[in-house]
Amino acid sequence: MEFVLKNWYEKNHNSGDQLIKERGICLEDDCNVKKFYEVFKECETRVKGKPYTAETCEEEIVDLMEALDKCVGHKAFHKFA
């Protein structure tokens, strides 16, 4: 999953979509988002290190996405206010 997230970010970092750019900035610079990203990476490492596990890191990825949305929310939708 980490590869997917990094791959997504690298492909979309120079995107014309402002929301994607802002998420990338949050992923790099926001301490709260970084914290959730680190928790997600730890989970991913743990899951990949086991031959079989029911653990999926679903909670960690949802927490990360919510942190990203919170980080970009005021930037993404300020024109609608």
TrEMBL record:
Keywords from the UniProt entry: Electron transport, Membrane, Mitochondrion, Mitochondrion inner membrane, Respiratory chain, Transport
Q: Which GO terms describe its cellular component?
A: mitochondrial inner membrane
Q: Where in the cell is it found?
A: Mitochondrion inner membrane
Stretches assigned to the Ubiquinol-cytochrome C reductase hinge domain: 27-79
Q: Which family does it belong to?
A: Belongs to the UQCRH/QCR6 family.
Return the protein name: Ubiquinol-cytochrome C reductase hinge domain-containing protein
What organism is recorded for this protein? Parnassius mnemosyne
